[in-house]
Amino acid sequence: MKRFSPRLFALGVALGAIGAAAVLAANVYAGAATRRIDSTAAATTQAPDQVIQWNRILLGVLRTPGAQPATVHPTRSMAILHAAVYDAVNAIVKTHSDYLVHLKAPRHASVAAAAAQAAHDVLVQLYPSQTSTLDADLAASLTSVPAGQAKAQGAGVGATAAKQILSLRSDDGSGASPIPFTPRTNPGDYQLTPPAFAQPVFTHWPFVKPFALRRADQFRPGPPPALTSPAYTAAFNEVRSVGEAASTTRTPDQTQIGKFWGAPIQNYWNEIAQTAALQHGNTLPQNARLFALLDLTLADSVIAFYDAKYTYHFWRPITAIRAGGDAGWTPLATTALDPSYPGAHAVVSAAGADVLASFFRDDHDDLAVTSEVLPGVERSFTSFSAAAEEASVSRIYAGQHFRTDQVAGERLGRRIADYVLQNLLTARGSGYR
Fold first, then answer.
1. For residue 387, which phi and psi values (nearest 5 degrees)?
2. In the chain, N or C: fewer CB atoms in 10 Å?
3. Is the domain of 105 the same as that of 212?
4. Whether residue 28 sits in one domain with residue 109
């Protein structure tokens, strides 16, 4: 994934038959040095379609300081955007079941205009301070779409889908205030962690309405192992050894892994999906479905793991190890502000890999991934599951999680992904992907 300014899209490669040279709002996020794209994208002749364009635009917004409300998880925006895009596009192509919105769309309406308008209208409502830039993005995104009835009809379908999806999510619990957390005092109970000893985040998120699951606890894992169990003892000893900042048992490669995956994990999986979509030459309707499946799954994965975290409120390694007598133990990375079990990276990564492997009907794919937090470093994988495994175990090397957090998280992520894949956006006939 080559480095890429948040709104700088090289659409002029060959966007459409008219060869438009459109650059999407290049100045807005040019200072955000953490933007990433696929390192193999240059090797494909396919330019990003409107689905990928707006996925990138959203990632740019999310990386803009202050744009994302601190008490609203970013996966909600990802899911709403791609749900609206999917229902708009699918209303025209009619190949799969609707997500939530059933629209009667003209069969010759422009799917590109529908996707762009739906995404724009969602983001304007979610991020009103970004309106002028998003308006410019929309104009640039539609440069390659010929003016006329098809464009106007597609834009109308997109606007309607966005309005209806936003309305259906308007009272989903995401606007509630976080619930104050009072730590309990028994061994194993989550405690506020150094250095800031701040309140944990997203304590209200277990009560957000899921996008696909029937309820947040539908696949809740069983409790973490007892502190006297061999499983806990092994996990404790492992993270104490390899997760310490000054560890002498962690290899240089493991140290790099522990740092590499330190950015918001959902960002990586959206960009991995971009990589795969470009490499496979997906059509726009295929990408609309791919990103809807992915981000609906990730959004529900977050709701589900917060349900489990705040059900079991299990302590973090830094608390456990210091309570065990190693008062100076410090993890490689600053401890995240929520309970340890299950591991968030494990849940999201297993879910993301499962969705991508199912969509492409093959787990094996050559992937090059870069990191927002380690500029210039690229890690390569030959399968989605290999990338997920490394992302998951990275949190042990970073001193964030026990192995038992990882195992439970991976199982939870796969169960959610399988549920979404079996029940949502299913084909109306054979031969559709």
1. -65, -40
2. C
3. no
4. yes
Residue type, 384: F
Single out the residue of 265, 234, 211 nearest to residue 82, CA to CA. 211
Burial class (CB in 10 A: 0-12, 13-18, 19+), 369: buried
Q: Are 61 and 127 in contact (CB under 8 A)?
A: yes
* Model pLDDT for residues 290-317, shown as the tens digit of each residue: 999 999 999 999 999 999 999 999 999 9
Query: What's the total number of domains in the chain?
Result: 2
- Residue 331: what are its φ and ψ, rounded to 5°? -75, 160
229-285: pLDDT as tens digits = 999 999 999 999 999 999 999 999 999 999 999 999 999 999 999 999 999 999 999
What are 115-170's pLDDT values in tens digits?
A: 999 999 999 999 999 999 999 999 999 999 999 999 999 999 999 999 999 999 99
Q: How far is CA 159 from CA 24, 121, 152, 163, 295, in A?
A: 20, 6, 11, 6, 20
Regarding whether 298 and 379 lie in a shared domain, the answer is yes
Residue 428 within a domain = no
User: Which region, left, alpha or beta, applies to residue 399 given φ > 0 means left and ψ of -120 to 50 means alpha?
Assistant: left
CB 98 within 8 A of CB 427: no
Together in a domain, 217 and 162: no
Domain check: are 218 and 86 in the same one? no
pTM: 0.90
Question: 203 φ, ψ to 5°?
Answer: -65, -20
- Are 222 and 307 in the same domain? yes
CA–CA distance, 317 with 291 (Å, rounded to integer):
34
The residue segments making up the domain with residue 306 are 205-423
Task: Tell me whether residue 234 is exposed, middle or buried, using C-beta atoms within 10 angstroms of its C-beta: 0 to 12, 13 to 18, 19 or more.
Answer: middle
Q: Are 99 and 425 in contact (CB under 8 A)?
A: yes
Q: Cα–Cα distance between 358 and 356 in angstroms, integer?
A: 5
> Cβ of 430: how many Cβ atoms within 10 Å?
5
Q: Are residue 132 and residue 25 in the same domain, yes or no? A: yes
